[in-house]
Write a structure and sequence with these properties.
Length: 295
């Protein structure tokens, strides 16, 4: 078996991305061996789903897992084994988000933290990276009615911490957001909060690395009617673009080229149907004035 070339991984890579890359390397080794995930699972007396989760980076990978898998794949080069073992060790380190406790979408946060660009479509609310603290709090209270005040505050803190990426002048996140008009019209919290949010959206839209487009009601049917989604892209060619679909109890990550291409084409259609950046800014300003007049 010809073993794959191991590329060095920068020490600054966060644990989520490190785990994802390690999973990719393990999948390459399995494919070179000509084995299916089911066959590997049978050899190690584990479930096939565990092998799949290890390879897609959705599960922590221990050094023991790496050792066992390398044994099954017949990896004899100790440099490769040592490199994979080191990656496994570093992938279990904690990112900044772990300080906030159990975050349901922690995998997504890890990817977002490392992404170079993010394309977002939102159907019913302002994207999290563009929310004000008051709006974020009202969203959490409404969507999570059984949460305590402390849990709501923790979620808001995480959301505000995530926004540091778009304020990072050295490495800003390139953000493109297409927002359905209904997100601007739906009252979240109260009218003052909505007016403040519209004003903040306008401020964000003036940043050179942020584009905000509004998809007005009068465009009729459009590709985003099935719900919100976002597409993450990365600087490192080893990291495949990923489509993120958020669910109530679980999330979905699509990395197959065909899936990413399908959603990318959908996003291009949404961008073409939406108002351009300048007209969107004017639209948001008018909606903000309407919220102010209604207060």
């Amino acid at each position: 078996m010809t073993e794959p070339e191991m590329r060095p991984v920068a020490s600054s890579v966060n644990p989520t991305v490190r785990r994802r890359r390690l999973g990719q390397e393990l999948r390459k080794l399995r494919e070179l061996k000509g084995m299916t995930a089911e066959e590997v699972a049978e050899r190690l007396l584990v479930s096939q789903s565990k092998i799949s989760r290890l390879e897609n980076g959705r599960r922590s990978i221990s050094q023991r897992d790496v050792r066992d898998l390398c044994g099954v794949y017949g990896v004899e080069d100790h440099r490769i084994v040592d490199s994979l073992m080191q990656m496994a060790k570093e992938s279990r380190q904690q990112g900044w988000w772990h300080a906030f406790g159990d975050i349901p979408y922690s995998v997504y946060i890890g990817l977002e933290t490392d992404a170079s660009s993010l394309r977002v479509y939102e159907a019913s609310l302002v994207p999290g990276l563009l929310q004000t603290p008051n709006y974020a709090s009202a969203v959490s209270e409404g969507s999570w009615p059984e949460a305590t005040a402390a849990e709501i505050e923790r979620r808001v803190q995480v959301r505000m911490r995530r926004q540091e990426r778009i304020h990072d002048l050295d490495n800003p996140l390139r953000l493109w957001a297409v927002i359905d008009e209904s997100a601007l019209r739906r009252i979240v919290g109260n009218r003052d909060i909505m007016q403040e949010q519209m004003r903040k959206l306008v401020e964000f839209s003036m940043e050179p690395h942020i584009t905000v487009q509004v998809l007005p009601y009068d465009v009729g049917a459009h590709p985003g009617m099935y719900g919100k989604f976002c597409i993450l892209e990365f600087n490192d060619p080893q990291d495949a673009s990923t489509v993120y679909l958020e669910g109530i109890t679980s999330d979905l990550y699509l990395e197959k080229p065909n899936d990413v291409q399908t959603y990318s084409v959908m996003y291009e259609h949404l961008r073409m149907q939406a108002l351009n950046a300048e007209h969107s800014r004017q639209f948001i300003e008018r909606v903000g004035e309407e919220w102010a007049a209604a207060g």
